[in-house]
């Protein structure tokens, strides 16, 4: 009877519900779209656009408020890209790497700060876009395309010479690296964000009051670090493609 009563209580008052792999699917023509990822991604993009417009609407010589904050963010991104790519060529890559960093950062923090689970969907649940493997794989593939583009733009077809340098024996390993880089980027980001949200959800289920708070604070720190790591590695890969190997 006691067990039955406990089960009835849990069924009536669900404190947390863990669902891995379920999606709210939209059919758009012949395409299937993950609705909750699509919605949250555009929410993040909307927040970034609004912040950019607010910061540049009335520019002042002596910045203050959101303009001052956004200029600080821009300087941080410039320093990050300059340190990874180098003084000569970093400017062209500030927009791309800065966009990656800001999108991942805001996405990660939206999962840690916004109570998405209060919004009910027919299936699945709203969460950070980066806790879905499709989002992280897309970002990783964009990074791969970016460093291929960087190498081909600077060196032309001679870019592919590095696959057989210093010896053609290394060709299989060099090709394998092009597959492992996006895999590493995507699964590192996805795994860390998903694991953090699952840990918080489990703690809320077991101890719903104060114990999850330090873990949530740690999750905010981890989310910021993951955005920084992704952007740093993207810059490092682009620098590697631009690097003149015979120097």
From TrEMBL:
Membrane-related topology note: Multi-pass membrane protein
InterPro entries: ATP_syn_F0_a_bact/chloroplast, ATP_synth_F0_asu, ATP_synth_F0_asu_AS, F0_ATP_A_sf
A Gene Ontology molecular function term of the record: proton-transporting ATP synthase activity, rotational mechanism
Transmembrane segments: 40-59, 93-113, 133-152, 189-211, 217-238
Keyword field: ATP synthesis, CF(0), Hydrogen ion transport, Ion transport, Membrane, Thylakoid, Transmembrane, Transmembrane helix, Transport
Localization per record: Cell membrane; Cellular thylakoid membrane; Membrane
GO cellular component, one term: proton-transporting ATP synthase complex
UniProt keyword ATP-binding present: no
Gene3D superfamilies from the UniProt entry: ATP synthase, F0 complex, subunit A
UniProt xrefs under PANTHER family: ATP SYNTHASE SUBUNIT A, CHLOROPLASTIC
UniProt record similarity statement: Belongs to the ATPase A chain family.
HAMAP family (alphabetical): ATP_synth_a_bact (MF_01393)
NCBIfam families, sorted: ATP_synt_6_or_A (TIGR01131)
Physiological role: Key component of the proton channel; it plays a direct role in the translocation of protons across the membrane.
Name the UniProt record assigns to this protein: ATP synthase subunit a
Source organism per UniProt: Waterburya agarophytonicola KI4
């Amino acid at each position: 009877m006691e067990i039955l009563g406990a089960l009835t209580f849990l069924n009536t008052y669900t404190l947390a519900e863990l669902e891995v792999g379920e999606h709210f699917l939209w059919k758009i023509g012949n395409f299937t779209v993950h609705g909750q990822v699509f919605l949250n991604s555009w929410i993040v993009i909307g927040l970034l656009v609004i912040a950019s417009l607010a910061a540049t609407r009335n520019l002042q010589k002596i910045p203050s408020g959101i303009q001052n904050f956004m200029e600080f963010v821009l300087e941080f991104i410039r320093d990050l890209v300059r340190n990874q790519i180098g003084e000569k060529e970093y400017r062209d890559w500030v927009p791309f790497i800065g966009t990656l960093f800001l999108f991942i950062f805001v996405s990660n923090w939206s999962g840690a700060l916004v109570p998405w689970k209060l919004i009910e969907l027919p299936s699945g649940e709203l969460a950070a876009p980066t806790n879905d493997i499709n989002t992280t794989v897309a970002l990783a593939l964009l990074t791969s395309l970016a460093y291929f583009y960087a190498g081909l733009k600077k060196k032309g077809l001679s870019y592919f010479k590095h696959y057989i340098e210093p010896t053609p024996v290394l060709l299989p390993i060099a090709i394998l690296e092009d597959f492992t880089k996006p895999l590493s980027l995507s699964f590192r980001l996805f795994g860390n964000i998903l694991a953090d949200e699952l840990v918080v959800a489990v703690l809320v289920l077991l101890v719903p009051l104060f114990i999850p708070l330090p873990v949530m604070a740690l999750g905010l720190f981890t989310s910021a670090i993951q955005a920084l790591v992704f952007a740093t590695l993207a810059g490092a890969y682009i620098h590697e493609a631009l690097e003149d190997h015979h120097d």
